[in-house]
Design brief:
The complex is a heterodimer of chains A (116) and B (133). Chain A is α/β, with parallel strands linked by helices. Chain A contains 4 helices and 5 strands. The radius of gyration of chain B is 14 Å and the shape is globular. The chains are: A alpha/beta (116), B alpha/beta (133).
């Protein structure tokens, strides 16, 4: 497991966002604040998964406590990256803030359509 | 108060607030409330999200904008610039009276210039924004 944290945070404070990559199950686990400052780490992690031959990527957003437009953009970019690489992306355990934005923007439909 | 979260459908908007919603399947951004210099970045962040979609034609719905000043007008121009920079087009599909008035004063082609002349015209808009319309 690889854990990426935002390095701008002082060491004595909780990182804004923690991104953990579980290679065996092609899962990216997010924890913390998915905002415009940190959200690019999600796309970076998925770009790393693109180097594997896993056909399905999973993003676990259960522990995301905050999501803004930058976070939504990263999730949409993650979906676009998966489509471009011929993979499938599944968003699981979306916390309330993530679930709300994904539903309101229709990103949930787009993700579901690629599964159809 | 500024509400950066996207919302669906018409919602009551408190004074000095903006609501921006993104419809990714339709490649459409809807803005409601007060579009000014302070709130403009919310619109631009929403428009940036559309770049993750393959749709070539983006739509902007400004039917529920209750206030628009020079900063808001600049945001509309910047939104168009974002679309052009990604090789897409942005069309203002609905507009409220405040938006329609400013756009007509400046000229539709100045705010949403045709693709072939977008850059020089957009530069003129940015210069013109400092003048009183």
């Amino acid at each position: 497991m690889l854990a990426l944290s935002d390095t701008r945070c002082p060491p004595d404070e909780t990182p804004f966002l923690t991104v953990s990559v579980q290679w065996s199950c092609a899962t990216v686990v997010l924890a913390g604040e998915l905002d415009r400052e940190c959200a690019h780490h999600l796309v970076d992690a998925l770009a790393a998964l693109a180097c594997t031959d896993q056909p399905c990527w999973v993003v676990d957003a259960a522990a995301v406590t905050w999501c803004d437009a930058g976070g939504l953009q990263a999730l949409a970019a993650a979906h676009a990256l998966a489509v471009a690489r011929g993979r499938r992306l599944r968003l699981v355990h979306a916390s309330r803030c993530v679930d709300r934005l994904v539903r309101l923007s229709g990103l949930d439909q787009l993700m579901a359509d690629t599964w159809a | 108060m500024v509400n950066p979260s996207p919302s669906t459908g018409p919602q009551p908007v408190t004074p000095s607030s903006i609501a921006v919603s993104v419809d990714l399947p339709q490649a459409r951004v809807r803005v409601a409330g007060e579009l000014d210099r302070d709130s403009a970045h919310h619109l631009l962040e929403a428009v940036e999200i559309l770049a993750t979609r393959p749709s070539r034609r983006w739509q902007l719905d400004a039917a529920d904008v209750t206030f628009c000043d020079a900063g808001g007008l600049r945001a509309l121009t910047s939104a168009h610039e974002i679309a052009v920079s990604h090789g897409r087009s942005l069309r203002l599909v609905r507009r409220s009276r405040p938006v329609a008035r400013l756009v007509s004063l400046l000229g539709e082609d100045e705010v949403f210039p045709p693709a072939s002349t977008s850059r020089p015209r957009a530069a003129r808009v940015l210069c013109g924004a400092t003048r009183t319309p």
